[in-house]
Amino acid sequence: MSNFLDGDAPILPCSNKNEVSTNAPGLSELSHQDKPWDKHRHSADRVANHYRGDGEFDRYAQRMDFCSQLLEFKLVPHDRDSSLRFKLSGARFCRVRHCPVCQWRRSLKWKAKA
User: Fold this and answer.
1) What is the reported pTM?
2) DSSP string, the chain
3) Which long-range contacts (CB under 8 A, 24 or more apart) does 13-21 make?
4) What pLDDT, on the 0 to 100 scale, is given for residue 24?
5) Which residue(s) pair with 12 in the sheet?
6) Confidence at residue 30, expressed as pLDDT on a 0 to 100 scale
7) Which of 3, 13, 100, 101 is least crowded, fewest Cβ atoms below 10 Å from its Cβ?
8) How far apart are CA 58 and CA 78, in angstroms?
9) In sequence order, which residues have a C-beta less than 8 Å from that of residue 8 and are 6 or more positions away?
10) What does the pLDDT profile of the chain (114 residues) look like in tens digits?
11) Which residues are 32's β-sheet partners?
C-alpha cells in the first residue's frame, strides 16, 4: 500500500461515484469478504441523492457523501494462526439516521451484544 499513516496503518479510500478521483479501488477489489462495504456505500450514495436538492436536508446529503470514505486499517495477528490480517482501527462515519453504512454497522453492534 502506498498510503500509510504513522508507518503501520494503510488508508484505503472507498470508491464513490461522486468522488473526483475515479481510480480509487473499492474494498471488494482488495478483499472478497469486504463486498458488504461496497454494497452499503453504494446504497448510501443513492440515499444521499434523495436528500440532495432540498435545502433542509442538504447537510445530511453532504455528511453521507463523506461517510466511510476514509478507512484506517492496522495489521494485527490472526487468532487461528501466525498470519497477519487487516483490522479496521479508525474511520469517519456520518451517523445520519437513514445512512445504510451507519445503520449496517449499528446492526452489527447490536448483534454482537445479543
Assistant:
1) 0.67
2) ---EETTTEEEEEPP-TT-S-TTPPPHHHH-GGGHHHHHHHHHHHHHHHHHTT-TTTHHHHHHHHHTT-EEEEEEEE-SSSS-EEEEEEEE-----TT-HHHHHHHHHHHHHH-
3) 13/69, 13/70, 13/71, 14/38, 14/41, 14/68, 14/69, 14/71, 15/41, 16/41, 16/45, 16/65, 16/69, 17/45, 18/45, 18/48, 18/65, 19/69
4) 59
5) 71
6) 67
7) 3
8) 42
9) 74, 75
10) 444 444 444 544 544 444 434 455 667 676 777 788 889 999 999 999 999 987 889 999 999 999 988 889 898 888 888 788 888 899 999 999 999 999 999 999 999 999
11) none
